[in-house]
Backbone:
């Protein structure tokens, strides 16, 4: 090995090679003497070892001192930089004592903290807000735990998505009592919690608080959340107020904000306002339209059955350099299907295959819905079978379309089969699904089964909507059951107005 002065292993073992012919054995060193750096046999001179001219010369010895002639400080193989001898069979051990025990003790000391904090993260990721708050309370009781801003942010976002804005506000106040200063992000998260629950006035009050705080000024994301809530509530007057407020603060709306307003105007049928916003986007250098803008416009005209306008805007967006995505092509398929333009619908599907766009569940749903509206049960069932053969999982809309299609074709036995298949595949049965089954029962004049489905729907806590009661009222009026209609009015006078009862 380098620095040892030997070229191989001989009788010298781990010691340096030396002449044996004319030298006498060296006397053992005095007891208690320690070796200087570089002097101990078998070690390599360190970077700071003195040169031979700087250290005292020792007489040339015939052989190195034997281990038995001096006091040993290290066992064979333990001294750093040495190798175990040829006869060494035991593995080297670390000179530190109880290392494993100390590491285990340290791990046990932190076990409680790791377990509970991980439990909190699991509850948040699984969107279980009640258990998340319980675990958070347990953590706050521990002396080692000090909640941070990020933890409050995650909990406020979770409570906002779970429809618990008041609890989110309690956490926000508690955070400030703990000495943590609010940030614009936390204020925005709390405003989003109120906006998700439709509490627009409370969200606007928080916006006023933000504007009064020098360190928590609202930004474009804050205004985008409030504008979306205004659009959902059809409060377009407040949308204009928000735009004016943003302009006074030199905050420019981004593409996301404009898309939200664009979609709101389109759904409300305010086409002139929609065109005004779209023109502003096309002229802007910082807020250019994107593929979401394209999808909003195409979906608007497609749902209205204005295929020519839809195609015109599709070509116009393409000329702006905006390329379609899978959702864009699915919108085209759905629009062509509703107009029974099956040749164009097939052409778009082939175009998707050519460009390696994968057919999705939405693609198949659009085709199934087109055949269902036409009462073409054969092609509808063929499309569904192809969908399953390609490994595509049907969703709730798939079964709604199938039930409506078989019901329109008068194949009520297949309606029963679809309901059982949906249950076997564990497809969520929402209000739309139950409405499709209720409508099928009404078309089959099976009012007893219709009432049973309605009771089962309420038992599963699936809230009926206006369409649910409309199906029931039409079925009862067809049979002259005015008492049943009156009972529905007593049950829900909002969705079954008095005018309907008196007709």
Residues:
């Amino acid at each position: 090995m380098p620095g040892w002065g030997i070229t191989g292993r001989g009788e010298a073992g781990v010691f340096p090679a030396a002449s044996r012919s004319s030298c006498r054995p060296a006397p053992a060193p005095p007891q208690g003497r320690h070796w200087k750096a570089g002097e101990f046999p078998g070690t390599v001179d360190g970077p700071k070892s003195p040169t031979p001219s700087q250290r005292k010369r020792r007489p040339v010895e015939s052989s190195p001192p034997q281990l038995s002639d001096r006091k040993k400080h290290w066992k064979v193989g333990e001294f750093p930089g040495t190798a175990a001898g040829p006869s060494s069979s035991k593995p080297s051990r670390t000179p530190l004592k109880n290392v494993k025990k100390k590491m285990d003790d340290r791990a046990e000391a932190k076990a409680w903290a790791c377990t509970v904090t991980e439990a909190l993260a699991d509850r948040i990721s699984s969107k279980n807000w009640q258990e998340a708050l319980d675990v958070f309370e347990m953590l706050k009781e521990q002396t080692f735990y000090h909640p941070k801003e990020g933890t409050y942010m995650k909990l406020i976002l979770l409570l906002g998505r779970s429809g618990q804005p008041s609890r989110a506000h309690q956490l926000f106040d508690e955070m400030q009592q703990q000495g943590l200063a609010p940030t614009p992000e936390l204020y925005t998260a709390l405003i989003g919690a109120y906006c998700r629950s439709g509490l627009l006035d409370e969200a606007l009050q928080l916006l006023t608080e933000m504007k009064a705080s020098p360190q928590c000024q609202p930004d474009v994301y804050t205004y985008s959340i409030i504008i979306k809530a205004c659009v959902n509530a059809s409060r377009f007057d407040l949308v204009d107020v928000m735009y004016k407020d943003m302009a006074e603060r030199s905050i420019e709306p981004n593409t996301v904000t404009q898309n939200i307003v664009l979609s709101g105007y389109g759904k409300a049928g305010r086409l002139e306002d929609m065109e005004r916003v779209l023109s502003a986007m096309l002229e802007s250098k910082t807020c250019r339209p994107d593929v979401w803008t394209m999808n909003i416009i195409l979906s608007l005209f497609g749902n209205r059955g204005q295929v020519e306008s839809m195609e015109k805007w599709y070509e116009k967006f393409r000329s702006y350099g905006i390329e379609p995505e899978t959702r864009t092509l699915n919108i085209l398929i759905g629009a062509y299907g509703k107009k029974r333009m099956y040749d164009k619908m097939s052409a778009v599907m082939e175009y998707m295959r050519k460009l390696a766009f994968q057919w999705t569940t939405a693609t198949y749903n659009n085709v199934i819905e087109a055949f269902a509206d036409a009462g073409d049960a054969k092609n509808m069932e063929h499309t569904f079978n192809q969908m399953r053969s390609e490994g595509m999982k049907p969703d709730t809309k798939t079964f709604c379309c199938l039930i409506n299609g078989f019901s329109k074709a008068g194949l009520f036995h297949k309606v029963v089969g679809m309901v059982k298949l949906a249950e076997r595949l564990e497809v969520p049965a929402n209000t739309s699904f139950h409405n499709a089954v209720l409508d099928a029962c009404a078309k089959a004049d099976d009012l007893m089964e219709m009432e049973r489905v309605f009771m089962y729907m309420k038992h599963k806590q699936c809230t009926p909507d206006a369409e649910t009661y409309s199906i029931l009222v039409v079925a009862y009026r067809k049979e002259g059951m005015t008492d049943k209609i009156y009972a529905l009015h007593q049950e829900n006078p909002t969705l079954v107005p008095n005018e309907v009862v008196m007709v």
